[in-house]
């Protein structure tokens, strides 16, 4: 606005007259036990919904195996409630448009690269903590939290507009066990033996809370015109795809052919983490990763390598400045936000020395045809036995849907 327009009329945005959250329950008879599939539908096609601000509400209890006695030596780890979900899918008019597997790992790796410490504090209500443990539960182990879907899936994070005239469904697969959500400290048993406390997490309530948007008459007429024109609407977002390579060979160099993707779903960012014997173990914190004395990592997309130069890391001498810089610059590149890392360099090295590779700028050779995604991982010594590699790929996705005819098409 011109700084000299002192008599300009005031303008107020009154296109939205109200937003209210409505609760949607799972199908009748749904259970929330390990390995159960939970389906939550939304059938209200005549309403305007805002999925990006929706969340999962969970109530439950952490107890010993009897389901009643409070635990003595067991804590919930940071991001514990995401680890209760092995897979989550989102359907639009019956067509799957986004899916996240290994939700605990993918949301944690995405979170520590995306969040600042202030963001983590804001997400205390979602199971995140500034420390390694989530301790905001009652003395008897009861808890109630919300999981924002924009913390779990790319569609909900990136697509921040309303949806018109469509059926929606959320499908949640409960994890096979609760071991990744807890950390149990061994206690002295009979004859001085170390024993682990047996515990369980019981979910008593789980629902999907969706914001419904009421619009002013003028705005409603515009939306009706869009609906009646039957014009297709494009939904663009970045989907999260997690890959796992268990039990790396005990050699000094690994060549991992991760995937082959279409040119429309080419990777934009790749996050690599290594972990030794951390998954599904009650006495190990699943959120702690290891450096395995790595010297170099290269990402190849159809032969084009990222980063261009070798990293020449030396974990013993803490020669990791370039690695940490790749990590802290993610927020600036991905969100166009100021650099404000979740971990300082000391915590980064001790808890999560991950590789964040920015491949968002690509040449025409990569953009055309299919894209082969390959990682070359080199360590100073042979990888320790029991080491698993996790690779989170953030890639483009485009979905086209026509509100009037209810057709949905995923571009590939």
Question: What does this protein look like?
Answer:
15% of the residues lie in helices and 40% in strands. With 412 residues, the protein is mainly beta. The chain folds into 2 domains: 216 residues, Hexon Major Viral Coat Protein, domain 3 (Alpha-Beta Complex), CATH 3.90.249; 164 residues, Adenovirus Type 2 Hexon, domain 4, CATH 2.70.9. Strands 16, 18, 21, 23 and 24 form a 5-stranded antiparallel β-sheet that branches. A 4-stranded antiparallel β-sheet has the order 1-15-4-9. A 4-stranded antiparallel β-sheet has the order 2-11-6-7.
Question: What is the number of domains?
Answer: 2
The biggest beta sheet reads: 5 strands, antiparallel
* Number of DSSP E strands: 24
User: Could you name the CATH class of the largest domain?
Assistant: Alpha Beta
How many helices? Answer: 8
What fold name stands as the CATH topology of the largest domain? Answer: Hexon Major Viral Coat Protein, domain 3
Distance between the termini: 42 Å
Instruction: Please report which band the strand proportion falls in: under 5%, 5-15%, 15-25%, 25-35%, 35-45% or over 45%.
Output: 35-45%
Percentage of helical residues?
10-25%
CA-atom Rg in angstroms? 23 Å
Assign the structural class, choosing from mainly alpha, mainly beta, alpha/beta, alpha+beta, or little secondary structure: mainly beta
Q: Indicate the mean pLDDT.
A: 92
CATH superfamily of the largest domain: Hexon Major Viral Coat Protein, domain 3
Spans of at least 5 consecutive residues with low confidence: none
Quick one: overall form? globular
Q: What is the CATH architecture annotation of the largest domain? A: Alpha-Beta Complex
């Amino acid at each position: 606005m011109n700084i000299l327009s002192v008599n300009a009329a005031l303008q107020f945005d009154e296109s939205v007259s109200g937003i209210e959250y409505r609760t949607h329950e799972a199908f009748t008879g749904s259970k929330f036990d390990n390995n159960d599939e939970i389906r939550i539908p939304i059938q209200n096609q005549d309403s305007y919904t805002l999925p990006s601000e929706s969340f999962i509400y969970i109530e439950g209890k952490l107890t010993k195996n009897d389901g009643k006695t409070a635990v003595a030596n067991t804590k919930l780890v940071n991001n514990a409630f995401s680890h209760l979900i092995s897979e989550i899918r989102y359907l639009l008019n019956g067509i799957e448009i986004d899916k996240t597997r290994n939700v605990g790992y993918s949301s944690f790796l995405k979170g520590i690269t995306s969040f600042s410490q202030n963001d983590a504090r804001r997400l205390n209500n979602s199971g995140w903590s500034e420390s390694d443990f989530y301790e905001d539960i009652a003395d008897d182990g009861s808890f109630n939290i919300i999981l924002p879907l924009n913390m779990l899936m790319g569609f909900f994070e990136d697509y921040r507009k309303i949806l018109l005239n469509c059926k929606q469904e959320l499908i949640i697969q409960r994890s096979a066990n609760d071991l990744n959500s807890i950390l149990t400290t061994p206690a002295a048993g009979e004859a001085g033996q170390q024993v682990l406390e047996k515990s369980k997490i019981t979910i008593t309530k789980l629902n999907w809370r969706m914001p419904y948007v009421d619009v002013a008459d003028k705005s409603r007429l515009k939306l009706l015109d869009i609906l009646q024109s039957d014009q297709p609407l494009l939904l663009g977002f970045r989907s999260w795809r997690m890959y796992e390579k268990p039990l790396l060979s005990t050699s000094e160099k690994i060549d991992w052919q991760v995937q082959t993707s279409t040119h429309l779903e080419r990777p934009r960012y790749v996050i690599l983490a290594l972990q030794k014997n951390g998954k599904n173990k009650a006495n190990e914190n699943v959120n702690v990763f290891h450096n395995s004395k790595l010297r170099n990592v290269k990402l190849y997309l159809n032969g084009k390598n990222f980063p261009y130069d070798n990293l020449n890391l030396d974990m013993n001498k803490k020669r990791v400045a370039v690695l940490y810089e790749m990590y802290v610059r993610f927020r600036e590149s991905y969100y166009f936000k100021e650099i404000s890392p979740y971990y300082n360099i000391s915590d980064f090295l001790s808890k999560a020395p991950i590789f964040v590779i920015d491949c968002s700028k690509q040449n025409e050779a990569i953009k055309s045809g299919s894209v082969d995604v390959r990682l070359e991982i080199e360590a100073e010594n042979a990888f320790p036995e029991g080491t698993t590699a996790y690779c989170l790929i953030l890639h483009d996705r485009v979905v086209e849907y026509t509100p009037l005819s209810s057709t949905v098409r995923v571009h590939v």
